[in-house]
Structure formats: structure tokens, C-alpha cells
């Protein structure tokens, strides 16, 4: 097991998030390649989340809320308000653009996680897609409640469309003595605490860090009073080039995507709402190299 410390990163003009993936020692957990934990933040009288239209390639975005509301709009024409316990999953494929904003009339707190899944090579050039799911399966064992956003856990399966073996779930623990759930031994797993403190497999985990567990485990033991988000999947052996909002396999793919975004190419379409698109940052002066999951 490995406890990975996160780092604070600005998101847009008004928010700061805690990023635990990619990490300096571990880039992915299964195909999960990005994990931001934001909030809980008091947003009364504040803008809340304001992320202008921006592009993606080669990934799926997974948005999950514990408190608050976010309005998602994308270049497919999707316009959805996500609330706690619901799932937004957007497949960029060859290219998509979207925005995420707190609505004007919004709840007082904003709290959630934003994740990316690297699409496998066979799926990363597919047509873009979007799903908004309000009715997700729940499984319970004594002391633990699991809402399954992606994949299967506790004998239930999410209807979310994914392209590699994955699991993602909100896990609520209320157990003074160890409680146990069954997990897929072919998966590696990661756990981030979003509220409270949990003891997982004998390790104390608090908000701001990610506990990584290698494949081979058949169960997880929890103790404490906490809410967590669990991710997992078959270890990803493909090397990735990640830069800005793009997941690719080569420097040239990143350069082409950036150039097309800056040129207003039809590859990414147009996000309704009239917001100014987010400009791409300058490319680094050195060549972007593919990275393995451990580096």
C-alpha cells in the first residue's frame, strides 16, 4: 500500500482543488488518470465553479457531487444540471468541448470530485458522447453503504458506459469495528477520503491524500466515520502523454489538438452559452514524452 499526498491546484479563476492523480510516483490507478477533490466550499455570494469552454481528447470525464449543483454544457448540445448522487460521464473520444459552472441560484455548499479515465487505444478516436445518470445502484453491507457510479461493486452494476474494466463508487463508512467489502482481485484500487477519517486496511486516511492498493486483494476492511470515493481497474500498461486537457500517445498528437483548438476547428465544436473559450497554454520548450503508470 502507498499513501499519496495531493497538492493544491487553481481551477479557473475562483476555485482551488486538491489533486491526487497524476502523482509524482503514480500516474494512474487502472485507467483512472486524474482525480481532483474540490470543497467543501461555502459559495453563498460567490461565483462558485466557473470553468469556461475547454477541449478534451482521449479521455472520459467523470463528475460526482456530494453537495451543490453544477451545470454542464458541451459541444454535442448537452445541457444538464448535476446534483449529489447523480453522475455526469462525458466521452471525449477524438474531440469535444464543455463548460462547467455553478448556477446563479445555487445551494450554499459545493463539494465533489472530478476524475478522468484514459481511453484505451482502441476507443480513443471514437465519436464523443455524454451520459447523465440520476438513478444509480446502491449496495450495503453492515457498516458500509456504496453508491456505484461506474462498473460493479457489492453485487450491483452501474449503467455508465466505459471502455475498460473499471470501478468508481461513493463509499460511506459508519463502523466502530472493522467492516469489510469484497473487491475485484484483478484490479488495483485507490481511495480518497472526502469527509471524516477512515482506517483502511490498518492505514489512517484523511482528506487530501490517496491510498493506493495493488491488485491481488479480495476485500477491503474499513473502520471509522467517513465518506470516501473508491476507484479501481486493471493496471494500465499503455504509456500516456498527458498535457493540459488532453490524453494522447505522442507529442505530435498534443500539438495538433492544441493547434486545432486555438484555430477554432470543427473538431471540438462549439459550447452554447456565449462564454469565451479558454485559451490553451503555451507548449513546453521540451518534447512531451510518453509516461508509464509508475513514473
TrEMBL record:
Location of the Pirin C-terminal domain: 170-264
CDD domains: cupin_pirin_N
InterPro entries the UniProt entry points to: Pirin (IPR012093), Pirin_C_dom (IPR008778), Pirin_N_dom (IPR003829), RmlC-like_jellyroll (IPR014710), RmlC_Cupin_sf (IPR011051)
SUPFAM superfamilies according to UniProt: RmlC-like cupins
Residues of the Pirin N-terminal domain: 17-117
Family statement: Belongs to the pirin family.
This protein's name: Pirin family protein
Organism of this sequence: Dactylosporangium cerinum
Amino acid at each position: 500500500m502507498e499513501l499519496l499526498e495531493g497538492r493544491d491546484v487553481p481551477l479557473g479563476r475562483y476555485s482551488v482543488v486538491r489533486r491526487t492523480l497524476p502523482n509524482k510516483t503514480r500516474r494512474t490507478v487502472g485507467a483512472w488518470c486524474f482525480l481532483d477533490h474540490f470543497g467543501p466550499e461555502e459559495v453563498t455570494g460567490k461565483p462558485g465553479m466557473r470553468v469556461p469552454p475547454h477541449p478534451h481528447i482521449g479521455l472520459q470525464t467523470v463528475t460526482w457531487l456530494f453537495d451543490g449543483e453544477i451545470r454542464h454544457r458541451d459541444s454535442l448540445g448537452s445541457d444538464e444540471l448535476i446534483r449529489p448522487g447523480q453522475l455526469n460521464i462525458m466521452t471525449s473520444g477524438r474531440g469535444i468541448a464543455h463548460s462547467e459552472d455553478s448556477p446563479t441560484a445555487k445551494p450554499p455548499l459545493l463539494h465533489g470530485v472530478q476524475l478522468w479515465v484514459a481511453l484505451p487505444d482502441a476507443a480513443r478516436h471514437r465519436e464523443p458522447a455524454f451520459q447523465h445518470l440520476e438513478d444509480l445502484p446502491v449496495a450495503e453491507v453492515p457498516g458500509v453503504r456504496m453508491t456505484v457510479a461506474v462498473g460493479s461493486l457489492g453485487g450491483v452494476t452501474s449503467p455508465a458506459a466505459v471502455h475498460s474494466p473499471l470501478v468508481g463508487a461513493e463509499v460511506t463508512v459508519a463502523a466502530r469495528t472493522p467492516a469489510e467489502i469484497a473487491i475485484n482481485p484483478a484490479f488495483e484500487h485507490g481511495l480518497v477520503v472526502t469527509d471524516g477519517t477512515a482506517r483502511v486496511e490498518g492505514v489512517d486516511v484523511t482528506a487530501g491524500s490517496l491510498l493506493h492498493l495493488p491488485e491481488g486483494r479480495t476485500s477491503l476492511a474499513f473502520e471509522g466515520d467517513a465518506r470516501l470515493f473508491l476507484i479501481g481497474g486493471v493496471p494500465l500498461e499503455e504509456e500516456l502523454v498527458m498535457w493540459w486537457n488532453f490524453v494522447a500517445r505522442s507529442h505530435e498528437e498534443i500539438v495538433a489538438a492544441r493547434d486545432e483548438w486555438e484555430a477554432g476547428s470543427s473538431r471540438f465544436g462549439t459550447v452554447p452559452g456565449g462564454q469565451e473559450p479558454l485559451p490553451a497554454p503555451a507548449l513546453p520548450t521540451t518534447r512531451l514524452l510518453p509516461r508509464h503508470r509508475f513514473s
